[in-house]
Amino acid sequence: xxxxxxxxxxxxxxxxxxxxxxxxxxxxxxxxxxxxxxxxxxxxxxxxxxxxxxxxxxxxxxxxxxxxxxxxxxxxxxxxxxxxxxxxxxxxxxxxxxx
Amino acid sequence: xxxxxxxxxxxxxxxxxxxxxxxxxxxxxxxxxxxxxxxxxxxxxxxxxxxxxxxxxxxxxxxxxxxxxxxxxxxxxxxxxxxxxxxxxxxxxxxxxxxxxxxxxxxxxxxxxxxxxxxxxxxxxxxxxxxxxxxxxxxxxxxxxxxxxxxxxxxxxxxxxxxxx
Lengths: 99, 165
What we know:
Distance between the termini of chain A: 10 Å
Strand order of the largest sheet of chain B: 1-2
Order of helices and strands of chain A: EHEHHEEHE
Order of helices and strands of chain B: HHHHHEEH
Strand content of chain B: 5-15%
Oligomer: heterodimer
Helix content of chain A: 40-55%
Structural class of chain A: alpha+beta
Helix content of chain B: 55-70%
Number of strands of chain A: 5
Number of strands of chain B: 2
Largest sheet of chain B: 2 strands, antiparallel
């Protein structure tokens, strides 16, 4: 069973940024630049979002030979619903129910 | 492509091998971005994030062996390195410094933690039925050696703390 988890400012910022992407696939670095989140905060958040079905992820083809493929993410329908709930909700941190 | 970025990437990829598979995917995603960072962007700073995820996952596996992914080998080398570092202060205290009461408790805790981590690396349990488990021993010489060292150090610490000492 997935536990409810407390919403935090970084989580809210990331959800809002992903929601603003309108279903567009995004790279981790671009998200980090836009949200100001460091990789050590961004990726654990994406991992938690993925566990809850809030984001979809796929590996993009390598841009050049010898380079590893990059991972792209976008908000799922469930993630958009949660982002909408957060946007409509109070500004203080609160418990958000899992998908 | 910067050579040192490639080396950083290889180092982190090697560190992520023993991670639980779901988390490893995301760490690999962070590692893959290193080559894509524009010039002037600190790849080292970016790598700290990936490294912290690796250390956290391996640390959890070392300290909470029952939460490890089924069928996954324990991060034996990480456990060996971490438990060796944990044993250094107690060993130093026994061999060089004069042990004192507060220090003895901390040293005993460090030796016990080191032993616990290595027990998790060498003992494997598989559920048989209900509460019955089959326990087997993995032959990992380094972890067994560290387990014995932790036991020895703990025994010496206890003898130091004895009222007859």
